[in-house]
Amino acid sequence: LLLLVPFQELRQKVHFLVNKELNIFENLLTQDSPESLEEEVKVEEDQSAVRKQLLKVTLQVLRDMNQTDLANTLQISKIKSTLRGKVEKINDGISGHGNSTLVNEIYTELSITVGRSGEVNNEHEIRQIEALTRKTQINCNNIFSPLLGQDKSIRTVLTKGVAGIGKTVSVQKFILEWCEGEANQDVLFMFLLPFRELNFMMKEELSLVGLLRRFFKETSELKPQDFYQHKVLFIFDGLDECRHPLDFKNNKSLSDITQPAPVDVLLTNLIKGNLLPSALLWITSRPAACGQIPAECVDQVTEIQGFSDHQKEEYFRKRISNQTLATRTITHMKSSRSLYIMCRMPVFCCISATVLERFDERVESEEIPKTLTQMFIQFLILQTKQSSHMYFGRGFIEAQDIEECVLKLGKLAFQQMQKGNLIFYEEDLRECGIDIREGSAYSGLCKQILKVEFGPGMVCSFVHLSVQEFLAALFAYLSFVSDNINELQEQDGSENGHLDLFLQEIVEYIKEKIRENLSLQKTASLFHCLDELNEHSLLEEVQMYLSSGNSHCLSNSNLSSDQWTALVFVLLSSEDELDLFDLSRYDASDECLLKLLPVVKASKKAELCDCNLSEISCSALASVLSSKSSSLRELDLSDNNLQDSGVKLLCAGLANPQCKLERLR
Q1: Same structural domain for residues 63 and 130?
Q2: The pLDDT value given to residue 192
Q3: What is the pLDDT of residues 360-395, one digit of tens each?
Q4: Final residue of a domain: which of 441, 468, 495?
Q5: Considering the domain boundaries, does residue 590 fall inside one?
Q6: Looking at the structure, do residues 143 and 259 belong to the same domain, yes or no?
Q7: Which residues does the UniProt record annotate as the domain NACHT (predicted)?
Q8: Does residue 324 carry a pLDDT above 70?
Q9: 24 vs 335, which has greater pLDDT?
Q10: Contact assessment for residue 325 and residue 364, using Cβ atoms and an 8 Å cutoff
């Protein structure tokens, strides 16, 4: 009798709990509405163990009832629910502390192209953005579909793109549309395995089944044969962040998905096709890390090229609700070439929108940031103010702490750049004296500048590589000033003039390097440095010659070597000039052609007719035709005295397998 009342109450509560959970399972089986899935994700900690056991019982009962299809559907729904919780929001750490945005609200379609290889590109990623060319466009949901004329099925796709170009958000959107039943419904199981989280398992030995259970507890009821009988897709995001050796040559071969092995061995065998050869793989990476995957293991390479000009405008109009302000922002970004180039990257668009929406029409145009440096300074000021507003009132932060925190973030950025790291862990923060725990003096600003994720452990990164580079440069600059301020003041004799002298020396050094006729890539970088320093004298001199609009505007101009270099930079910066290069606009001579050869190489069409060219130019043009990176498709050489020897040189270039010329006159 003493137990009767407690057990009656217990039966009622268990009955209520079971009914509640079964109703959720029923919703998962009968609809894929966001509301039901969102409700399912938000499980109180004390109920999660109950739900796990009840799910196990429910699946077993369904299978005992010969309702295998229903059991599988429920299993998939649980995996989709977990994935949806991971990918449906973007927490950029930029627009506001703790703010997150639904992917479907902010997502703007990105330009994705199909490439031929995952070859390593060691250029700085900003230069790679400038050099992006349009190739075969492809929709993200169709990356596993063979192109027209392709017979071979595609198992492994490698998607490359510079930092911040939208690789991870593309992955999120891809998964979200699968979860919502909009795309790729032939895939039964989809597993997201970010390399930054796999890094926490460096010393562990797990089977592939065990690894999946670590990331997706819902797979605990799946049997090994389920992975073979159904279509499975693995998504490995962020190859460039991988700290596993990925020793494809020496790792042992493994084909049993239940056999434990180091995670590195699991990865290499999965990519090589020894493990689950029927599974699909999608790997994302920055270009510099693509070489870690053997070419024979990749069936298709795609490249995310970021926003086109139209997509940039679309993003700003979505991001900034005040359309008048959005229009002003777009106009301002177009006025600065360096800013507009960077806007190919969604993250930089977000940074710019966050900064510029604080500037209304009452602000003088001179105060609005026009260079990358100015933009990042304003971004840092904004984040500092936001963290101050949040934490001053609670007594957690002082003005001196902010300055100290910026320096420590700069040190972290500098040290990690020296190591080549974009991601770092708690021990790296401690090494720089940074504590981001709630309530610490640094937690506010750090959480504005850093993206912090908690998986198996804490992993951090700056909101974008360019922010890391800016803070690293700021740290190096402040360290230099601290070490040399007395010497500089003695030279200048003025307490406030040492920076002028410092900047003047930098400008003169950069100009001297430009005169050395370095490679085009290095020269372009130096001109961007001058632009950041607001030093435009060289470019203005060249623009003066070009502004006349007359043909042969450079005849008898006697340009210096650095002015010729500046002219090449200006022309390469012009999209119109890269569509059609007309030598007669400048000077109809061999000398002018040789000086402007990089522009010819980057142009789609070159008009060189009646330009007094000789066999000297033919040798140079042959090298352009033979170049793998040449964009030239049409060439007009009519009415020039090239001689037989010059024509032979041209023929050698035309015969080169790398030649892409389609029309020659």
Answers
A1: no
A2: 92
A3: 665 666 678 888 888 888 888 888 777 665 544 444
A4: 468
A5: yes
A6: yes
A7: 155-289
A8: yes
A9: 335
A10: no
Same domain, 293 and 326: no
Q: How far apart are CA 480 and CA 68, in angstroms?
A: 69
**pLDDT score of 128:** 53
Nearest-angstrom CA–CA distance, 578 and 591: 20
pLDDT of 492-543, one tens digit each?
444 444 445 445 556 666 666 766 666 656 666 666 677 666 666 666 666 6
Q: What are phi and psi of 283, to 5 degrees?
A: -120, 130
Same domain? 261 vs 114? yes
Structural domain contains residue 497 = no
How far apart (Å, rounded) are the C-alpha atoms in residues 176 and 173? 5
Query: How far is residue 474's CA from residue 413's CA, in Å, rounded to a whole number?
Result: 10
Find the angle CA(288)-CA(245)-CA(219) to the nearest 5 degrees.
100
Q: How many CB atoms lie within 10 A of CB 612?
A: 16
Distances (CA, A) of 252 to 247, 255, 265, 274, 294: 9, 10, 7, 11, 16
* Cα torsion angle, 198, 200, 205, 206, sign: negative
pTM of the model: 0.67
What's the farthest any 2 CA atoms get from each other in the chain? 116
Same domain as 279, residue 191: yes
Q: Is residue 509 part of a domain?
A: no
Nearest to 409 by CA among 454, 365, 376: 376
Strands (E) in 50-149, as ranges, are: 89-90, 101-102, 111-115, 136-137
Let me know if 250 is exposed, middle or buried by CB neighbors in 10 A (0-12, 13-18, 19+).
exposed
Residue 573: what residue type?
S
Order of all β-strands in the sheet with 300-306 = 136-137, 111-115, 300-306, 156-160, 280-285, 232-236, 189-192
Instruction: Work out how many domains the chain is built from and give that number.
Output: 4
CA 401 to chain centre: 32
Question: Is residue 340 in a domain?
Answer: yes
- 563-584 pLDDT, tens per residue? 777 777 777 766 555 678 888 8
H-helix or E-strand spanning residue 315: helix 309-319
Q: Is 114 helix (H, G, I), strand (E, B) or coil?
A: strand
- Whether residue 332 is found in the same domain as residue 462: yes
118 & 265 share domain: yes
Could you give the CA distance from residue 333 to residue 243 in angstroms, rounded to a whole number?
37
Residue 392 CA: distances (Å) to CA of 45, 182, 545: 32, 46, 55
Helix (H) or strand (E) holding 280: strand 280-285
For the chain, percent of residues with pLDDT exceeding 70: 66
Burial class (CB in 10 A: 0-12, 13-18, 19+), 465: buried
Token pair 């056999």 is found at: 259
Domain that holds residue 404: 315-468
CA torsion sign, 401 to 405 to 411 to 412? positive
Residue 607 — φ and ψ, nearest 5°?
-95, 105
Q: Can you give the CATH number for the domain in which 235 is found?
A: 3.40.50.300
Number of Cα atoms under 13 Å in the Cβ half of residue 277: 5
Res. 42 pLDDT band, cuts 50 70 90: very low
How many CA atoms, within 13 angstroms, populate the side-chain half-sphere of residue 18?
11
Q: Residue written as tokens 């629910």?
A: 81
Domain end: 37, 62, 79, which one? 79
Integer Cα distance of 544 and 538 in angstroms: 10
- The CATH number covering residue 584 comes to 3.80.10.10
Residue 622 sits in the same domain as residue 655: yes
- Give the pLDDT of residue 599: 86
Q: State which amino acid sits at residue 23.
A: N
Residue 460 tokens read as 């951090």
Structure tokens at 369: 């940031």
